[in-house]
Amino acid sequence: MYAIVEMAGQQFKVAKDQKVYVHRLQTEEGKKVTFDNVLLLDDGKNVTIGAPAIDGAAVEAKVVKHLRGDKVIVFHKKRRKGYRKKNGHRQSLTEIVIESIVAKGAKKVKAAEPKKAAPKKEVAPKVEAPKAKAAPKAKAAPKAKAAPKKEATPKAKPAKADDLKKIEGIGPKIASTLIEAGISTFADLAKAKPAKISEIIADVRGNHVTDTWPAQAKLAADGKWDELKKWQDELDGGKA
What stretches of 79-163 adopt beta strand conformation (E)? Predict the structure, then answer.
């Protein structure tokens, strides 16, 4: 029996006791994970095709370990421009073992729903009292000299945002998303927790590992650039 299932944004043909390497999952090592987006099932006699997924079917697996794939070299060159750029990348992966394939009766894995805001209280409309007749105007008294105006104190300028792209693993899209969420300086990023950062950038496409970002930001905020550069040479996408 085998199934075609979508896991971490990719489709795999899997069978029981098979090892599969998928994009990094947030599940801890040793824990079980369920994938309910099953597209096809073959039990040896019948083939069931989903529309697009099969209702009640699921693939249950166990997380063995987290690792990184082989390094891939990306080289860019422009002819006659003297432009060359070389980058290396190692994809963050998770090794899982397929424990069972359920054809019917599996429960759907529900995504966490955002908290609903409390309903606003309705304010009763104000009832205006009837206006009283205006009293006859008295003669205006001579105007007193106006006191000299006090000079307004200049408003404090907002703190200038830091270049968050200097943190290994942060690109332009993630940097703008963090700034919109109120994390605009290295000091702000150093105080944030990796889980909170992952929640803020959840809508940014890609697989992002935020474990080292606060520690990198702390070195940047303290001006320890040499120490940060030495550490970043050992990192790849923010992961040690």
Answer: 83-89, 92-102
